[in-house]
Amino acid sequence: MTAALHLAALAAFAALMLAAAVEDFRRLVIPNRLILALIATWPLYLATGALAPVAALAALGVAAAVLAVGALLFARGLIGGGDVKLLCAAALWAGPAATPRLLVLTALFGGVLSLILLSPLGARLSLAGRALLGPPDAADAAGGRIAVPYGMAIAGAALFVTLQPLFG
To answer: Which of 121, 128, 134, 154 could be stapled to 26 by a disulfide with Cβ–Cβ 3.0 to 4.6 Å?
Structure first.
């Protein structure tokens, strides 16, 4: 039963992270309901014994620290609010030991994503994808600039860091 609950919690995590990545690509918005669902399913993950009580408290502390630093970056206009909230939820799930790797991978994935979107082909594909998948104004949401759906990088890093122990 515990193994099934553990897999169910991880499946919910993966589905919610993928949904956040898709929504950020489509609309350049990460809905709060997805963030709340990620946070709400974390206790289910804890109930499986995935983290010791001390590590769970440390995860809460790390997530709070990520939120505090992210809020400062958001206040300076360097990162989006949805990205801050998604990164905070990802740090909660990753736990204190894996959060540094989460942050490094997020930066690497975000850099690669930015380079792709800066290329003429990447920019055209991004605009076409948003026009196809999103509301009519989604392609113009960045005001003429190339918008980077950084939630995709956060979700990719979070999935890698959190699910990698299953395969490793």
So the answer is: 134
